Amino acid sequence: MSSVTIFYATEGGSYEAVENDTQVREFIFLGFSSLPNRPIFLFVAFLAVYLAIVMGNLMIVILVLVDSCLHSPMYFFLCHLSCLDICISTVVFPKILVNFVLRQNTISYKQCMAQTFFLIGFAGCEPALMAVMAYDRYAAICRPLHYSLLMSKRVCIQLASATYVLGFLDSAVHAALASQLSFCGVNQIPHIFCDVPPLLKIACSDTHVNELTNHITSLFVGLGPFLFIILSYVCILASVLRIRSKGGRRKAFSTCASHVIVVVVCLGNGFLNYNRPSAGYSLEIDTLVSAMFCIVAPMLNPLIYSLRNKEVKGALRKVLKKWTN
């Protein structure tokens, strides 16, 4: 391999040139470059958002664990969804907050690869988990007599485990391919965290395999679960329309409404983040889409389920009453 000149940021913000055959040692995020004089404001804003995401989703997890009324497959999977939202935010937010405190926008090469691996892994689990949640609603509404068999404790654990295996297999493929990219001294990432699309933008080596892999895995990890969810809800809708009582229809629709909203928010943000064109978007648009991906869905999920679900609100009232007495 021929020697290349590598530029990396020093503590003083300057650059050093090193003749070496290795990759860049550090990357510099450009996502907040248009707001260089507001680190305190951004730190407070991102810290507040991160705490809201963690506390909101942690509330769901605690309620499911302590209230026996929520010990059902639907809430078992909801608990896993909340854990995934916490993990996705934790992969991204702490590094952003540290950079605000240190007044720098850098991340080491190894940290960048690790962040990419875990971000794709946790994000890749969510579509599969939502497909499992849709199947749970299908079994409850369309196959009520067989529900306890179709969604037994053993089946629920196997389905939840399968979502993690699928997500991190996808992540391992993307991270392995990303680690083979060459950057030829270019270390400025037009983004606010490490991910495959922004890394492909600055790579100087051939990225066709990475891009093809991204599109193929999107079919299996994103589009596949989405189509399964649509099919499940078509069957659910057909079954609900056969219910004669208005109260029965209303109850069936209410149990599915929260999940449908979460599916639209999560998969819509994921699609925008990973499948938008590689050209034609400004740095500000990329930053906005990335922020929505890490903030909107994780923050809205607990709100949607707690505000629209009577059982969750009832469990919350019982817990608050117990703690205040």
Extract low-pLDDT stretches: 1-22
Q: SS-based structural class?
A: mainly alpha
- Overall 3D form: globular
Strand order in the sheet with the most strands: 4-3-5
The overall pLDDT, averaged over residues, is 80
Series of secondary-structure elements, N-terminal to C-terminal: EEEHHEHHHEHHHHH
Measured between the Cα atoms of the first and last residue, the distance is: 70 Å
Number of domains: 1
Account of the 3D structure:
The protein is mostly helical and 325 residues long. The chain has a single domain, classed as Rhopdopsin 7-helix transmembrane proteins, CATH 1.20.1070.10. Helix content is 72%, strand content 6%. It is built from ten helices and five strands. The strands form two sheets. Strands 4-3-5 form a three-stranded mixed beta sheet. The chain has a two-stranded antiparallel ribbon with strand order 1-2. A hairpin with a 5-residue loop joins β1 and β2. α2 runs antiparallel to α3 and α3 packs parallel to α7. The longest helix has 34 residues. It starts with a strand and ends with a helix.
